[in-house]
């Protein structure tokens, strides 16, 4: 059994690569059993991000399809974005909804906090369920308009079968919201 | 509506930062509407990864708690790892089980493919459900033994409330397996 208070000690750290967006740090670690390792990790903005499952009515979710450079393909997922400095997560969620699907939300409910690959990143995303949508458009900084896609929540299995709906955080959010609705109806 | 065949054109690319693990590429893009942007993306190994939800019996899952450098904390999640060059995903899944929880699996069922942040990465993970476990230990390259944690699947909501169980891919895998079991019993 690991003593979880016995974190490895970081005995050295240095930036080994840096670009406009990414900062890669190498750290020297000594584990509590004396084992030594060098690991790399990515330093983030620390700003956090939000992802929103918007319900345009009680049966229908709204998703967006947008260009993803990592895969050089269009991918389907829920609206999301970084929290601006000083911004509350709820305000970021409402701003992203207005920029990406041209709706604000009267009601945002907390669903979960998701981390992305904590072995390498410190990237936290707060997931909200958005209800009570009203039309409201903000200009974003997208190079082209996102494709807005409505999907009946009853057909979530059909959504899971789309070969461009594969992002882990969107799938986690979908399944947590499905579970939440199931719980409400049981 | 976006013509999905009309991917932006990559008119230039260059490595802007590189470390032992990471290779960051800057690309020049021209979108179909003429808009130009420079994006950064991370080039991966292209090897793919596996994540396994192991059932030690029909009611109990097995997880591991391990040190994550990105967050400098111990995190709870399902066994996972990279696919070795030339290795089949199923074989990688069985190898990771033997290295991390000291069990092999007679039965591996495909659950899903998950991508991590496709805006920046091209990192694909195949999720398996593992049943029919038998004791079998392989040596891994971990600096310290992983803590092995059994969790009753009926208490998945308790697992979701653990503040060290937050990794998006583990949560997606858990909820997809819950949904699969629900479907089998409906």
UniProtKB/TrEMBL annotation, chains A, B:
Residues 42-173 form the Nudix hydrolase domain. It comes from the Bacteria. CDD domains: NUDIX_ADPRase_NudE. Keywords: Hydrolase. Pfam families: NUDIX (PF00293). One of its GO terms (molecular function) is hydrolase activity. PROSITE patterns: NUDIX. PANTHER family: ADP COMPOUNDS HYDROLASE NUDE, UDP/ADP-SUGAR PYROPHOSPHATASE. This is ADP compounds hydrolase NudE. The gene is nudE.
